[in-house]
Specification:
Blueprint lengths: L1 E3 L13 E4 L2 E4 L27 E6 L3 H16 L3 E2 L8 E6 L4 H20 L5 E5 H13 L5 E3 L4 H13 L2
Parallel strand pairs: 4-5, 4-6, 6-7, 7-8
Antiparallel strand pairs: 1-2, 2-3
Length: 172
Amino acid sequence: MVVYRPRRSRSSPRGGICVFAGTRSFVVSSLPVIQITPVREQQYSPPRLPLNGKRFFIWTIGCQMNEADSAKVAAMLQEVGYQPTDNEQEADIVVLNSCVVRQAAEDRVSGKLNALARLKRQKPEMPLVLTGCMVTKQQEKLKQQFPHVDLFFDPSEFDKLQQVVPELAMLD
């Protein structure tokens, strides 16, 4: 049941309330009835089932551009059936979106990558992906420093990531 209190106009009496119950409406007081026509229901589409229950975790540090890039990556992963998780321990794929504008941010990314090395040893099949400004500036150095990272990609290379994501989905 929906109760609607219309705005008072010069021609309408005070204090009226219209009550809508289902498709019927009636006036509790002397105000005119306002008929609400239901909007045509959207066509039902079943929700996408998780890809064998696979989940992804994205950790982002940095600017709004990094947030937007992380949203793109999340959309790509969801498109192939991954579901998001807030816990990297539950994830089947982990993506870190990095920043190098300040040393503190770079240090946090390095610390997170070192912490994820332990998780990678426990779950060697879990793809670990690093993207962001850090990759843009020092990709070769990062490959040597963090050999447990499976994929490094520059944010300008989203087309390459779009090719890789379906392949990641095929991994068990």
